[in-house]
Every structure is written in C-alpha cells, then in structure tokens.
Amino acid sequence: MLSDRFLGVTVLPEYIQSEGIDGVLDNLVMKVGANAVAISPYLMAPADEKTGNREPPADAGAGAVRLLDRPLWGKREIFVRTAPSFTPEKRLYKGLRYQPPPPDALTAQQGSIIHDFIRAAQGRHLKVYFQVQAAIPPGYRVQFGGPTEDDRPRLPDGSIPPRRLAKNGSLASPHILGYEHALIRDLINQYPDIDGLRFDWPEYPPYFLDSVFLDFSHHAAKAAADLGFDFQTMQRQVGNLYAKLHGGLRDDDLKAWTDPDGGRYGLMRLLSDYPGVGQMIRFKATLVENMLAGFRKVIDEAGGQHMEMLPNAFPPPWTIASGMDFRRVARHSTAISCKLYTMHWPMMLRFYGDQILKANPGLSNSLLTRALVEWLDIADDQGFERLEDYNYPPPDASHPVGSEAMARKIRQAQADAGDTPIYVLAHGYGPIDDFRRRIEVAHRAGPHGMWINRYAYLTDEKLEIIGQVTGSTRN
Predict the structure, then answer these.
(1) Are strands 78-84 and 53-55 parallel, antiparallel or unpaired?
(2) Three-state DSSP class for 91?
(3) Residue 442 to residue 430: CA distance in whole angstroms
(4) R_g (Cα) of the chain, nearest Å
C-alpha cells in the first residue's frame, strides 16, 4: 500500500545532465516512490581545480573526507563550474548592488533541460520545487557566490568572523533582500509551472561558535532601530557573553550544565545576567520572519499565489541562535523542512569546543564535551568523553548521534510550528545501516513526510531503502 505522505528528493541539475531526465525520474518513481523533487536553476560542467569548486563541498575543510555515492560524470570527487539555466531579465535587477551571472554557452546549449525536466516530472505526478539560497547572491548554489564585505554579518566588536562555512550575508541588508526579491520575480517569470520555492539557509547558520554571535553589522543596527530593539544594549551584553566564553570560562560554569536539571537553573541565571542576549534572540527571529514574510509577498505579487513556500531550517536548539523561530515562520510557510544533517552535528560540536578550549587554557576537556553534548542534545546517553572523539564522519562511519535525539528535535520543531507541517529533511550521506536508521527516525518522528538530501549520496540500494521504510514504492 502506497503512503500518502509527502516524500521528496533533492536532485541538483548536474545529475539530470549526467544521468538524463528519464534515468533520474525512473529512480525517483520506481525505486523511491517519491511525489516531489527539488532542483535548482543552474547548469554544471566539469572544470579544473583552478577554475572550479569541489563537488561535493568540503564544508570548511572538515568535509573533505566526503565523496559522492553516485558518480558525477564518472567521478566521486570532481571540480566543477556553473552557469544559470536561463537568461536573467536584467530590468528586474536594475540599480541593485548584486547582479545575476550572465548566461554563457552552457546556458544556450543545455538550458532547456530544466524546462524539460519540470514537464517530465510533473507528467509522472511529482511536484517540482526550486531550491535557492536565501542570502547568498546569486542564489543558485551554496558554494557559488557570496556577499560583499559591506553586507557580511559581524560580531559584537564589529569584526567579521575569520572562519565561515556559510556565505550568508546579513539578513538585514537591503541589498541582499533587494536581490532576492528580484531573483524570485525572475524565476517565477521564467518557470511559472513550478510548484514552489524552497529557501535554504533563511537564517544565520550556526556552524561555528562565532556564527552564534551574529549579527552586529551596520545594516543590523539600522534594522534594530527601525524595529524598536536596543542595539547598544544587545551589542554590549552579547559582547560580554562572548568575552566570558573567550577567557572567562571555568569548570564551575560548566558543572551547572551537567546537573540533573539539565542546566535549566543555569540558563535562567544566564538570561538574568545578560538580558540583552534574550533581546538579541528575539531580534534575529524578527529578521528571519520579516525576510520570509517578504519572500511570500513577492511570490504572490509575481503571480505565484498558487506556489508553495518551504524554508529549510536547522533543528532545535540551534534555531535559538540562528533566528529560525518555527512559531513565527510557520505563519508564512506552506511547510518547513527541518534538517537532519547528522554528519554536521559532531563537526559543529568540535568547532565550538576547540574554540572554547583554546580561549580558556586549563578548562576540563571532558567536562566541556559533556556540557556541549547536553546543550546541543545530540546523544541518547552522555556521548563521547573528549572533544577529539568528535569529527566529521568519513563515508563509512556511522554518525555519532542518538536516534531519540533526532526524534526529539523533529517533535520540538513540529510542536512549535503548530498546524504548519514539518517535513524532515534527512541527509543521504553515510553508510547503509546508518542511513536506514536515519530514514526510519524521520519516518517515525515526522508524520507529515520527508525530504531526502541529496541524490548525490543515494546509491541504488539507498534509493530502495527509502521506498521500503516509507512504504511508498510504486510497482
């Protein structure tokens, strides 16, 4: 019996080019039983190391161990370049700081494949969505693009973090928002038959500890004043907390977070000591909501009233720092896709821990590790003992994340979102047994359905596992 729940797969255009339209759709329909697919409005071609970007992405170096499970043009690691799949309508971008990349020979030669794929997928009863970046001009693909220095989010002292994985600009920048509005209009004009738009990273992605303390750019200062937030108080008190974590942290501070109460008392004391931190959390949530409300408004104005809007989101508790308040975003969204990118969670814990240990000599490694495991809620037990045990898992290693921890995050997201569906966005990277475990958790914890990200990591065996677990295979 086929499941009637939502089941989508992210298939970036390079696989449509590499495997062909029918090859991809046969896998989605016959092996997976999918009823939705997400693509993006670009094309890809092989390049060299000097002129291209690595596929798959290296994720700030930590993900360099990652290889493609489905070879791309015969390779599991390849350098590539991209081009838009369409000719942008220049008048929509007139006077904007950011301009779309110009079409080239690749656009002329293969651009029609995206239109052909949309028609073919819908002909097989799949909904088709475009995934675009919310705050990384030109917005077609996460690695390709980024903001100018003036539009980058900043720390409380006004500096730009020295390391970043996400190239997101400030969500308060009128230049970022203006470009995104133009892009939305352009895509709806070019592809009026798509079923919806899926916005990736419509928040402040908290991959590094510094990313948690954004955004104090001049754009954010103006937005805070316009919205009635006390920017100077937020800047001062968030800066004080940042300083506490960078030289003022002691083992006694960490012990509160490993107490049987789960650190609830310590959290209340923290918020009473730094009330500007709570205000900053609300400010970022307001920026995220306003951005997505604006996207929805532009979609409707451009003739896309029938189109769905599905923002992608980090899972709790990272959403507190990222600005993704499911309660507020749900007001403007058809559904919200909550990420189970479990290979990132140990990497992020390690990033945070290494920075804190370096800034606080003598701090207990094991106590910090346990506190981070508790804060981030990634284990069903106490987790590993030391920071060194947490790394970006190689392709053949299970992700050190508890099944119940994954389920708790999805349940929390759905509780916050209310009647707006949460689709679990499960990642395909990792060994077979661990992948099956992740899909089983997603199916159990997400009653509305799931996305699988992404086709590049889905061997034929993994494709069949999806259909088996969800009961959606079509014969």
Answers:
(1) antiparallel
(2) helix
(3) 15
(4) 22
Kindly give, in sequence order, each residue whose CB lies less than 8 Å from that of residue 441, ignoring residues fewer than 6 positions away. Answer: 340, 403, 406, 407, 410, 426
Q: Write the CA distances from 405 to 120, 176, 316, 342, 377, integer angstroms.
A: 39, 35, 10, 11, 6
- The four Cα atoms 266, 270, 273, 278 give a dihedral, to 10 degrees, of -140
Q: Tokens at residue 4, please?
A: 């009637």
Residues near 121 by beta carbon (within 8 Å), at least 6 away in sequence: 25, 28, 37, 128
Residue with tokens 């904007």: 96
Q: Which is it for the CA torsion 345, 348, 352, 358, positive or negative?
A: positive
* Residue-wise pLDDT tens digits, 148-157: 999 999 999 9
Contact between 287 and 381 under an 8 Å Cβ cutoff? The reply is no
Residue located via tokens 């996305």:
451
Backbone angles phi, psi at 418, to 5 degrees: 65, -125
Q: What is the DSSP letter of 100?
A: P
Cα 345 to chain centroid, rounded: 12
Q: Which contacts qualify for 232-238: CB closer than 8 Å, 24 or more apart?
A: 233/275, 233/276, 233/279, 234/276, 234/277, 234/279, 234/280, 234/283, 235/156, 235/276, 236/156, 236/276, 237/274, 237/275, 237/276, 237/277, 237/280, 238/156, 238/213, 238/274, 238/276, 238/277, 238/280
Structure confidence at residue 148 (pLDDT): 97
Evaluate if residue 475 carries a pLDDT over 50: no
DSSP character at residue 65: G
Nearest one of 225, 243, 230 to 157, comparing CA atoms: 243
Cis omega before residue 46 (within 30°)? no
CATH (one of 3.30.200.20, 3.55.40.20, 3.20.20.80, 1.25.40.20) for 6-470? 3.20.20.80
pLDDT score recorded for residue 474: 55
Q: Amino acid identity of 44?
A: M
Give the confidence band of 61 by pLDDT, cuts at 50, 70, 90.
Answer: low
- The order of strands in the sheet holding 78-84 is 42-46, 78-84, 53-55
Structure tokens at 10: 């992210």
Residue 426 corresponds to which tokens in the numbers above?
């499960």
CA dihedral 256, 257, 263, 265 (to 10 degrees): 30
- Average per-residue pLDDT in the chain? 94
Give bridge partners of residue 339 from the DSSP assignment: 425
What pLDDT is stored for residue 1 in this prediction? 36
The domain limits of the chain are 6-470
Enclosing H/E stretch for 473: none
